[in-house]
């Protein structure tokens, strides 16, 4: 997925105007309306769509970010807007913090899958600390857009994966909740079909009922989160870039505990992991 074609330079600003949630929404709607992808769609319908979605629940996800989004009848394509408010806005965010970075997403109702992929992409990029720092430090709207696109770039590798042969099985074992959630968002953004997850148990939890091992449980990490395994069939020629994308989230896996990637070559694959 090349997200740059949805985020036009005209739809980015480092001086997002507005002192209230409603004013910010209207400013974002104005940026969306400037996008070539929103041609023929009225500003009023974009504003109303974003405001109505916000009434259903705040799109402030914490960490100083918000991703207002909606579907607007008559739109032919998706359009994104990116804005920074230096002063910060009270946006009823999940962590009650003021929001400084906004990414709005508006598109046609007929393509919910792409809507989800764009939401996942925005959530993943804005969830990266370095990405937020670079965007908040941007001196121009152009630099703001480039910072966003730079961190979105690693997740474009599987855009045409449905037309390729899936000949590798990748297993990702993850212990930290935040890392797990970010990787799931990454896979959704990539449009990777059929990724599944499995919850496991730490060795210490299995040994918990055996008195002879009781004195060693703290050493084994009995209080650590339960590990989860993500499995997916992927094209072999995407593996290097996929692993690089995952390490954007985890850091260098050779120096990171609590996460591991294993790649296998299955002898036979029949059927599909895609959901019915």
Commentary on this structure:
- It is a single chain.
- This protein has 276 residues and is α/β, with parallel strands linked by helices.
- It has 2 domains: 3-156, Mannitol-specific EII, Chain A; 161-264, Alpha-Beta Plaits.
- 36% of the residues lie in helices and 20% in strands.
- The chain is built from 9 helices and 10 strands.
- It has helices at residues 21-34, 43-56, 112-126, 129-136, 141-152, 177-190, 203-207, 217-220, 239-250, and strands at residues 12-13, 60-62, 65-66, 69-71, 79-89, 99-107, 168-174, 196-199, 228-234, 259-264.
- Strands 1, 2, 3, 4, 5 and 6 form a 6-stranded mixed sheet that branches.
- Helix 1 (21-34) packs across helix 2, helix 3 packs across helix 6 and helix 4 packs antiparallel against helix 5.
- The chain is globular, with a radius of gyration of 21 Å.
- It starts with 11 loop residues before the first strand and ends in a 12-residue tail after the last strand.
